[in-house]
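Hi U.,

Before I forget, here's the chain from the pilot set. I'm dumping it here mostly so it's searchable later in email.
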Amino acid sequence: MFDTTRNSYTRAVVGEVTQVVQALVNNIDLVVRGKHHEIRMAVCCLLTEGHLLVDDVPGTGKTTLAKAIAGSVAGTWKRVQFTPDLLPSDITGVMVYDQSHGTFNFREGPVFTNVLIGDEINRGSPKTQSALLEVMEERQVTVDGLARPVPRPFFVIATQNPKDFQGTFPLPDVQLDRFTMRLSLGYTDHNTEVRLLEDYNRHRSEAGVSAVTDAEQLEQVIEAVDRIEVAGSVHDYIVRIAEATRVRGDLRLGVSTRGTLALLRTARAWAATAERDYVTPDDVQEVAVAVCSHRIALTPEAELGGADTKAIMATILDDVPVPRHREG
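Structure:
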């Protein structure tokens, strides 16, 4: 589909990427109403080969969004409902004794798929959470000294309930940093919710979405997005945003180097959705809050004062000087 050599990477190629992205967004729009911006962000996360955390109150469409993304890609997808008694081997797989042959065979866990939905991840124990997050980082499972890679692309969509809900085990800072992006859907606006009730019937609500791409095409799109041009001034801008989070007195944790890389890749994906073959500072600003706000942590004093990481990131974006001209 794509000629991925840098010299031949042209606007025509970006146009093909945009067609795939638009098909994904439109398909998901059919079942997740009134959340076009959030859907576009989620698709950008998919194009970075990162992982998405959807953090919101129950009943706002977190799992519906995850299932719609998974169903739109004609690869394999699996779903795991996290509970306090879920074991790490229930995620990664386990060695099983075969009596007929007298040998142990590996039975793959649900992580061996293209899209994995981890529902209510913060209801699982910290040990089980760590098992999933290790696979997210390493993209392989090691059992009996043998590394077993998961398929590519491998995309985890995890949902979690607010941390003050009963029966939750909040993700530590180091584990939150493994997620490329965190989104909140929020409640649907009044008019959209009225239309949703008018259009509702049980048969339609239980039907899944049709696939609009497959794993092979998606992998080519991902490789194409990685070749979008980024000027040196934009690289500098991303680092200055991260540095601003590391020196604030109301933050005990700033954006990591993993975070700056995630911001770069997500800005490239956002540029591709706008049918551009280069990244602008506006692309960085569009995705920075979703990519960075879960990577920074408030001091106890700031938390008691009611500070919000999203608001802090918005302030930082206002304060850091923006490059004025595109290089080259």
